Records
---
Amino acid sequence: MKKTNSNGKSKRTKVTNIIIIIVAACFFVTGVVLLLIDPIKSRMRMNITEDALTSIEAQISKNALNTAETGEETTESTPITIIVPKEGFEVAGESYDFYGEEEELQELYNEVEDMEANLPDNISLTCIGILKIDKINLNLPCWHVASRVALRYGLGHYEESVMPGESGNSTILGHRNQHTSTMFYRLKEVKKNDTVRFLLPSGRELVYKVKEVKFVSPEHLVENIVGDASSSERLTLVTCATERGKGYRRLVICVPK
């Protein structure tokens, strides 16, 4: 009897050990998958941006050639656009920041939620140019809006500012994607007198120099990025500066060179 009990206990122990190993293996595989999801999504998101950039550069080169041949600056009647998915390639920490009274803020958040809920599964983004900063190897498309979706695939133009090259202040927003060291992550390396270029869809290049780098608190952000923040031509690049405090932004202010 004792021998039988011993054998039964041994079998139960083996079964228990096998179950533990299987469960541990499942947890391990799940952990590996979770660790890989973000890098895979980031790589796929960057591939979409790179493919879009290649297409945009080809179209701009075509426009520039046409301008050289005709002697007149032109853009194609068909906008330079790409189609991107509404969901699936989110950036860590992406959100809309609104400032003001609590009641007003809730209304704004509700409006954004309703707007995004009604977006189609695939969204068309229109390119207004390419921002280039050789010092930090930055070469990114700038979209006509600075929406949550647009900022996953490049930079976004703040709609309450003027267009690049126009009189007044033109603001371009971008994520400081520290998880992949992309987008405006290296903007912190840009200093006074550095060169910043913006290539228009026509092929004309706007060349700027950095006049000032400063940090602004949430309550002073809007006054620094709207179109009338400057009476003369200016380009303002904006990204997060959370090391200075919640809601703080780094502003790289550029003027024509």
---
Amino acid sequence: MIFKRVGDSRPYPEHGTELRDWSELPPRQIRLDELVTTKRTLDLETLLADDSTFYGDLFAHVVEWQGELYLEDGLHRALRAALQQRPVIHARVLVLSKPDA
């Protein structure tokens, strides 16, 4: 098993975090088997492209919500790591707290 679970949506609330906001979060290592994906499908061309990270962040984006780690952006990076038999990726983690009830 590569991921903890394969999801097809974002169960957490909209956070409105822009790319520059993500860049302020320090990257850290995350185990692939702790991640829940938010996309069920992947464009194979994106996975195999040599410049797939050229125009974006070098690190995956993960949202921590209610004790789960959701892979919001970087599915192709995570799959590349798995294909290279690496159990971790470097990701920026945005921690969302529950709204006050």
---
Amino acid sequence: MKYRYPQLNAEMPCKEDVLKLTPNPAVGELVQRLAEEGVETYLDRFDAQQPLCGFGLSGLCCQRCLWGPCRIGPRALRGTCGADVNLVIIGNLLRGMAAGCAAHGRHAQEVIETVIGAAEGRIDFPILGEERVLDLAR
């Protein structure tokens, strides 16, 4: 059974649909084995969450302070703090973007430190395609 989300204009597949659509048969075998062992997977947790909250799917749920979560809609046009629909949506978007940048920024920092360490000879890490690295640096 697919889950219909009008807020997203999308249908999300259930566990059985995901397993049917997965091209790698090993995935199906793994999920079957995990089920036999009683191990919960993301597919089980997703199915257990249905139906998902329309406020969250629409970006109209604010959880940025301890007064919430606030659900912005016809009954409440503003959150407890006074944030309206525009502020809640952009706040949720910016918070997600900041979290993603922070996580991936750390990866970039480690790559940069590795390249510098290899260039200075402090790390035994051969640089393959040295010309390409120099082109990027220029």
